[in-house]
């Protein structure tokens, strides 16, 4: 994007904020690869995964005998990334003592290894990511304000995937193509219904969750293709649906029941369209009905229209058979529908 291109030509520190899985590390790599440091090292440290003492040693290195178990001198990531780029992933999780040492490195471009008093000069561009609200952390005294200002020279916000659902089809095709190459699978087509479901899901796990779903689909379909199972070249909605959290789906309105699926064969073997009964969202007295009531009415009406055939009902409503069964079971337990449904 233009913002990545703009900061790539600079040597300033970049702070990339955004939800977990929104592609912050991908942005960081893109900045490095578009910069004059592209041929130099790109190293990353997950600040949330290491304790205070381990993180300090990981970043700055240590001298032999600096602490128990330090049987030899070890270079830290700052030293190893000299001339290149160092990514501090989840920088908000750094302990106060290490924050102070990091601040000095950013200010003076030098540091000392743990257990040493000799300063080592470095030329490293620092990129940092955070899924927390750093200004709020500063206000609560959990993060140094001076360090925040040093990191926030060139801020970039990575939007969540639900903020850019139009990108989903492009990302799906990209991931599927790459994964097919990796798994040495043949070309996989994506059923329109499957793409529609993926593009209407809110993706709480962001790009990482989307990539995982694509990988799971490609791996399973490649395995099916090797055993000669039919349908191994088309990614269907019924395959994808069980992997998506029901609470994160953008519900298709029950008012728009799929008309072509509501056709039933007449005596001549041709489809006979049954006009669905309008479902009222607002009652004559002005009272607005709850979404669950409208959904329940739409499902019951569609079940009756298909004479209780769950597969046809689920297909018409654009939901999975398992989802339909779970809803009916819940409503039966609550005595909201007929036990014979």
TrEMBL record:
<keyword id="KW-0547">Nucleotide-binding</keyword>
<dbReference type="Pfam" id="PF25601">
    <property type="entry name" value="AAA_lid_14"/>
</dbReference>
<keyword id="KW-0804">Transcription</keyword>
<keyword id="KW-0805">Transcription regulation</keyword>
<keyword id="KW-0067">ATP-binding</keyword>
<dbReference type="InterPro" id="IPR025943">
    <property type="entry name" value="Sigma_54_int_dom_ATP-bd_2"/>
</dbReference>
<dbReference type="GO" id="GO:0006355">
    <property type="term" value="P:regulation of DNA-templated transcription"/>
</dbReference>
<dbReference type="Pfam" id="PF02954">
    <property type="entry name" value="HTH_8"/>
</dbReference>
<dbReference type="InterPro" id="IPR002197">
    <property type="entry name" value="HTH_Fis"/>
</dbReference>
<dbReference type="InterPro" id="IPR058031">
    <property type="entry name" value="AAA_lid_NorR"/>
</dbReference>
<dbReference type="InterPro" id="IPR025662">
    <property type="entry name" value="Sigma_54_int_dom_ATP-bd_1"/>
</dbReference>
<keyword id="KW-0238">DNA-binding</keyword>
<dbReference type="InterPro" id="IPR009057">
    <property type="entry name" value="Homeodomain-like_sf"/>
</dbReference>
<protein>
    <submittedName>
        <fullName>Nitrogenase (Vanadium-iron) transcriptional regulator VnfA</fullName>
    </submittedName>
</protein>
<dbReference type="GO" id="GO:0043565">
    <property type="term" value="F:sequence-specific DNA binding"/>
</dbReference>
<dbReference type="InterPro" id="IPR027417">
    <property type="entry name" value="P-loop_NTPase"/>
</dbReference>
<dbReference type="InterPro" id="IPR002078">
    <property type="entry name" value="Sigma_54_int"/>
</dbReference>
<dbReference type="GO" id="GO:0005524">
    <property type="term" value="F:ATP binding"/>
</dbReference>
<dbReference type="InterPro" id="IPR003593">
    <property type="entry name" value="AAA+_ATPase"/>
</dbReference>
<dbReference type="Pfam" id="PF00158">
    <property type="entry name" value="Sigma54_activat"/>
</dbReference>
<feature type="domain" description="Sigma-54 factor interaction">
    <location>
        <begin position="1"/>
        <end position="219"/>
    </location>
</feature>
<dbReference type="InterPro" id="IPR025944">
    <property type="entry name" value="Sigma_54_int_dom_CS"/>
</dbReference>
